[in-house]
Design goal:
- This protein is mostly helical.
- It is elongated.
- The protein has a domain of about 30 residues.
- Keywords: Collagen degradation, Disulfide bond, Hydrolase, Metalloprotease, Protease, Secreted.
């Protein structure tokens, strides 16, 4: 299933921003070069809930 063009372009702009590239939303040569760089397997950008809290409020040592 193909991604919606607007969603794809939004995520591509997010990736370009992360790498310090011009945020065109298009797959240009600079973006392709950034995609081909060796990378580790960890995510660069994490999605977190705005209200993250500990489930346990009792502090122990």
């Amino acid at each position: 299933r193909a991604a919606e063009p607007n969603l794809f372009q939004a995520k591509l702009r997010e990736m370009q921003r992360f790498f310090g590239l011009e945020e065109s939303g298009n797959v240009d040569p600079q973006t392709v070069a950034a995609m081909r760089r060796p990378r580790c397997g960890l995510s660069d950008v994490e999605q977190f809930r705005k209200t993250m809290r500990w489930t346990n409020r009792t502090l122990t040592y």
